[in-house]
Amino acid sequence: MIPLPIPSITFEEVYDACTGSISDATLAGNHQSSKSALSIYADDYHASMSAASIHRFSQTPRLPISVTDVDMKNLYANKLRKKSSPGRIYYDRLRVSLPDHLCPFCGARLVASLDHYLPKTEYPYLAVTPTNLIPACGECNNAKGSHVPTCVEDAFPHPYYESFDFIWLQAHLIEATPAGIMFICDTAQAPDAQVSQRVTHYFEKLNLASLYEIVAGRRLTEYSRILKPLDDCVGDSGISPQGVKDFLQALEPAFSDQPNHWNAALIRSLIASDWYCDGGFRSR
Fold first, then answer.
1. At residue 88, does pLDDT exceed 70?
2. Same domain as 135, residue 20
């Protein structure tokens, strides 16, 4: 997972943009009278996420509101997500908030839309709350689905609020021709059993092992295309194993703040392989 900064866009900004063009006077009035309660509800969500107690979060605001769940779902669909809608500028700002546009859940595919961390089917009153809207690829969004955590252990990691800094993603190089790569979730360094179970659930739910094998296989081929010409240019002895390690180690700083990025795990496994550094890179 790629940690993201909490959006600077406020609930009030988004809500005002989405409700300002409602032509039905009754509906517009209901939204206006519900704004304060929904704003407090958004603050409650933030507090719950910060306290890691999202599995206990209420599906309804604690103060009375005049809008229905259908009103809120329609507000999202017609006034925020819909192209040319008044709130679309905020939708797009959230969607393109990552510099490389990679999905924060998998770190491998491009962002396609916004995912409701708590699904709008079950939590419609968070439908336009910025901190509940996470840029995601279509595959991760679909795999996550309408998941509602019932306990800490099955709560999905939240990119705005969490960062599992211990190294849990491990890559294992298959030293054969052609070389291959496998990924496993190893939570031995997890600070506690709850975090271990959450990371494992997330890894398995998104089927990250299969995804990472594919993208890392492509990266292995790219590295081989770089190293083979270098190997051919340095005479009969070829590039030294240390030279290969130096090349790989020069790539490590790019992932220093993301130790569980698939490419970081791949590089670690290649550096650790004497076989790869002593010519195995030619096997792709």
1. yes
2. yes
